[in-house]
Design brief:
- This protein is mostly helical.
- The protein folds into two domains: 40-78, no CATH class; 84-253.
- 66% of the residues lie in helices and 4% in strands.
- β1 and β2 form a beta hairpin.
- The chain is elongated and about 90 Å long.
- Mean pLDDT is 85; it is low at 1-31.
């Protein structure tokens, strides 16, 4: 029998302690967060890192975790609705109706009945859609819808007698034509800028803003020179712009769950994909 105080016994004890310390250090390393670099599946078995599990066992683990009280109390993520179709609806409606008047379709030249839609549907609703785009983090849509919401409200006010805009220029119609041309020229510039920013979006939006810029340009020129034919041409371009808006609106709300004729928006070359 060996003596516990002998050198050989001391060496055995030291080796045992070193081995225990090594295991403890290993356990500490194993207790740290580990990164799984590879997950593979082979029939009934799934390998996660160096561990292999049966599919059913993993499914049971996940089901038990989802049924836990902690998971049920976890706050649920709320998806926000897309406000872009609402903005397109209000814009397309007002653009179509005003453009029909500008084109003198069926001899209509007085847009008085459209003042209310300009103020509330094209103005307030489109402005509201722009503010909702702020909530969803869509800077471009927020800028476009809010700005054009302001346009429709302004155009409605100009054509409202209570604001006295037309009465202020009753003695000088040419000045009224010139100031209206200035107003439209500003929208030519703004629409051109947002049109440049739509070149990597969808064809519907690109054509909508392109036709709309031509609408403002022709209305501006027609107002300055007093040419009805140029103004009518602007009206027809406005109708084309509204058609693109209707198409983009339908693409935004139609799908296989709510209809039999869903359409999709076609992306332009180099458009960002999700």
């Amino acid at each position: 029998m060996s003596n516990p105080s002998s050198p050989s016994a001391s060496s055995s004890i030291s080796a045992h302690e070193a081995n225990a310390q090594h295991k403890t250090g290993s356990d500490q390393v194993l207790g740290a967060p580990r990164v799984v670099h590879q997950v593979t599946a082979d029939g009934e078995y799934v390998t996660i890192g160096a561990q292999t599990f049966r599919r059913q066992d993993l499914a049971n683990i996940f089901v038990n975790d989802l049924d836990s009280e902690t998971y049920r109390r976890r706050p649920k993520l709320q998806r926000l609705a897309n406000p872009v179709p609402l903005g397109l609806a209000s814009f397309s409606f007002c653009a179509l109706t005003l453009s029909l008047v500008n084109a003198r379709v069926r001899g209509v030249t007085i847009p008085s009945l459209l003042v209310a839609p300009f103020l509330f549907f094209g103005g307030a609703i489109e402005l509201f859609a722009g503010l909702l785009c702020f909530v969803t983090g869509d800077t471009y849509a927020m800028t476009v819808f809010s700005a054009f919401g302001g346009f429709w409200i302004s155009w409605g006010c100009i054509n409202t007698e209570a604001f006295g805009v037309t009465a202020a220029y009753a003695d000088d119609p040419q000045m009224f034509a010139n100031i209206t041309g200035f107003f439209l020229a500003g929208w030519v510039v703004f629409t051109f800028l947002v049109w440049l920013c739509s070149m990597k979006s969808t064809w519907g939006l690109f054509l909508l803003l392109g036709f709309l810029d031509m609408t403002f340009l022709l209305l501006c020129i027609g107002t300055f020179i007093g040419n009805v034919n140029v103004t009518m041409a602007g009206g027809y371009f406005g109708i084309l712009s509204s058609i693109c808006g209707w198409y983009s609106l339908y693409c935004g709300i139609s799908n296989d769950d709510n209809g039999y004729l869903p359409l999709r928006a076609y992306a332009m070359p180099n458009a960002a994909t999700v």
